[in-house]
Design goal:
Blueprint (H helix, E strand, L loop, with lengths): L33 H4 L14 E7 L17 H4 L4 E3 L6 E3 L3 H4 L5 E7 L6 H10 L21 H11 L9 E4 L29 E4 L22 E2 L10 H18 L5 H19 L1 H6 L7 H7 L3 H15 L3 E6 L14 H24 L6 E6 L3 E2 L11 E2 L3 E6 L7 E3 L1 E2 L6 E3 L4 H12 L6 E3 L5 E3 L13
Parallel strand pairs: 1-8, 1-9, 4-13, 5-6, 5-8
Antiparallel strand pairs: 2-3, 4-12, 6-7, 9-12, 10-11, 14-15, 16-17
Helix pairs in contact: 4-12, 6-7, 10-11
Length: 477
């Protein structure tokens, strides 16, 4: 439900006078600063290669040695417990637990040489999703702050809003929850997916799917239709979204505005009112409700993706880009506190994580291709770091941000290739090292957003959306 003057949130609230109602995750109705509103209209002369981006974020750090960079000739204490299998990409060996992906690698580019020095989950997650290093030092924090850099999705939302073209759907959506929302304990609202200093009006619309109990992991099991409602975070379910209820909420908003007007100048209020109306329009939109109804998909297709939360969320991402959403992030969260962060062993990789990813990823690529959407949709699948070449006795591996893969497809990405070479132990790039800045500029380039675009920050200073790096144009055909 809409939360008016609700409970404070530890991770993503701004100053108290900006603790506005929540809609669409961290605040579709939030304020932006007046100086931000004076920024020039964001325009780009680049022809877009992609109408949309689907960003599959495997949070925790999948092991390169157990997924896309197997080293069968490495020493036994490095190469890992999984056997390599051939793929449809010449010379590319991938994990035996990725058989469905192996059959579609002719649609993808495996970029083996992502690298950065931020060996920390929250900081690295911020870095990957924004293209900027987190301002919090390693180990100095876990949750988002108002001073974080805006995510790529938030910048996409900003650019879309500045065009002045009315949209039935937001430009930026996060599925199936805010990152960290389903973790077993210590539910940190992880940084990287929000508007940050750009303003809460550019936060994503976020859906809300809960788990059954503390120990449940819906990514690893079939979910019922009752669970898979994909309600908007902070709102009542679509079935209960009657116009009478919306009018009641609008009345509550008017009451809230009365107290808020004593604090804010008229220009800022006009901004708030605009985002308030935008959020209400999204809630009332039949197109929004239809796009978020997973049950409209054929049963056989849903089975192909997998009835687990990850598979259904990837299918929902396809529905959203088909409906016109420009940037969709799908999290594969560490519900048990480890998951992709495979310190303890490789058992969960083998039994749960890799098979569910394999099923959903291969189905998404095939589905997009069958519908003629892959040519206009950039798909990116990756974590925020890799794992140490040297394992422990149970084949668990530690944090290793020095080298990890990203898999890209669609929107003109050259299919069936490997980009970059790694050393014999999959520990370091040998050539074509690619930074988070490079990746962010590549994604902006694909979307037709100038990678060198400057927008005004909270102090009103023109600021690069990415500082340094360059688009990796060799990835495109």
């Amino acid at each position: 439900m809409l939360s008016i003057l609700g409970k404070p949130r530890a991770a993503c609230d701004g100053p108290s006078r900006r603790q506005l109602l929540q809609a669409g995750g961290a605040g579709l109705l939030g304020l932006t600063l007046p100086k931000i509103l004076q920024a020039e209209t964001a325009e780009s002369s680049l022809p877009p290669r992609a109408k949309s981006v689907i960003f599959l974020f495997l949070f925790g750090g999948p092991s390169q040695l157990e997924t896309f960079d197997l080293k069968p000739d490495a020493p036994a204490d490095i190469r890992g417990p999984f056997q390599p299998i051939a793929s449809r990409t010449p010379g590319l060996l991938i994990s035996e637990h990725l058989p469905k992906t192996a059959a579609v690698t002719d649609k993808v580019c495996v970029l083996k040489t992502m690298t950065h020095p931020y060996n920390d989950h929250s900081g690295a997650g911020h870095y990957i999703q924004t293209g900027h290093r987190w301002q919090i030092p390693i180990g100095g924090g876990f949750t988002t702050t108002p001073n974080d850099w805006p995510s790529m999705g938030s910048v996409t939302e900003y650019v879309s809003q500045r065009t002045g073209v009315a949209r039935d759907l937001p430009s930026y959506v996060v599925l199936p929850n805010w990152l960290g929302g389903l973790q077993e304990k210590g539910q940190y609202r992880r940084p990287g997916e929000y508007g940050g200093w750009l303003g809460r009006g550019y936060d994503p619309l976020t859906t809300n799917i809960q788990k059954k109990d503390l120990n449940d992991n819906p990514y690893w099991r079939d979910c019922s239709d009752e669970e898979l409602k994909y309600d908007i975070q902070g709102l009542v379910s679509p079935a209960a979204m009657t116009m009478d209820r919306l009018k009641l909420r609008q009345s509550l908003l008017s009451q809230f505005d009365g107290s808020q007007r004593a604090l804010e100048a008229s220009k800022t209020l006009n901004t708030y009112d605009r985002f308030q109306q935008r959020a209400l329009d999204l809630v009332a939109s039949e197109k929004t409700r239809t796009a978020l109804d997973i049950q409209q998909e054929p049963a056989a297709l849903r089975d192909r993706y997998g009835r687990h939360l990850y598979g259904q969320s990837c299918l929902m991402a396809r529905r959203l880009v088909e409906a016109g959403v420009r940037f969709v992030t799908v999290h594969y969260d560490c519900v048990d506190g480890y998951s992709w962060d495979s310190h303890r062993s490789s058992h969960h990789l083998q039994n749960h994580l890799i098979p569910t990813f394999d099923q959903a990823f291969a189905s998404l690529l095939t589905d997009l291709d069958d519908r003629g959407l892959l040519d206009e949709t950039l798909v990116v699948a990756m974590g925020e770091m890799g794992r140490t070449p040297k394992p422990n006795k149970t084949w668990g591996r530690g944090h290793w941000s020095t080298l990890f893969p990203a898999v890209l497809a669609g929107a003109g990405i050259r299919p069936g290739i490997v980009y970059g070479e790694t050393d014999k132990d999959a520990g370091h790039p040998v050539d074509k090292a690619t930074s988070p800045e490079d990746l962010a500029k590549t994604i902006y380039y694909a979307l037709g957003i100038d990678p060198d675009l400057r927008i005004k920050n909270a102090e009103g200073r023109p600021t690069d959306i990415v500082d340094g790096g360059r688009p990796v144009l060799d990835l495109f055909g």
